[in-house]
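Try this one yourself first.
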């Protein structure tokens, strides 16, 4: 579990977001270490708890709230031979140029080479005549 700050309007349990990096005002903010110091650019986070603490912020319409976040499970396509529930694999994105499946081929929050644990096999997906497995994974922190 990670403690961070999010805009008051976004501070709702269950909300997922991708952290893209600090804004210009963050560089001189006294809360930057807590707010953005705990987050990794390009990763997806899910708010699990909103605390009743707020702070002023020039980016988020005046206020941010303290929240607890986790990295959620993310759906991704993998080669069928790697789709074994409970196994850990080094993520290698499949080759497919179907723009409608882009979020499953290269989902935000995961990077090629991440070590992930397959927590669930959801089903089969065909892409450009090849069959892949749609799985739900959790990133393993190194």
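Now uncover the answer:
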């Amino acid at each position: 579990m990670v403690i961070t700050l999010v805009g008051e309007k976004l501070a709702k349990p269950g909300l997922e977001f991708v952290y893209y990096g600090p804004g210009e005002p963050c560089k001189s903010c006294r809360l930057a270490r807590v707010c953005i110091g705990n987050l990794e650019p390009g990763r997806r986070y899910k708010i699990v708890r909103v605390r009743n603490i707020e702070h002023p912020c020039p980016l988020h319409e005046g206020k941010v709230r303290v929240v607890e976040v986790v990295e959620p499970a993310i759906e991704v396509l993998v080669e069928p031979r790697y789709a074994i529930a409970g196994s850990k694999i080094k993520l290698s994105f499949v080759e497919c140029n179907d723009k409608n499946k882009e979020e499953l081929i290269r989902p935000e929050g995961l990077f090629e080479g991440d070590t992930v644990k397959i927590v669930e096999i959801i089903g089969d997906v065909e892409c450009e005549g090849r069959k892949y497995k749609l799985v739900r994974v959790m990133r393993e922190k190194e």
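Discussion: DSSP finds two helices and eight strands in the chain. The radius of gyration is 17 Å.
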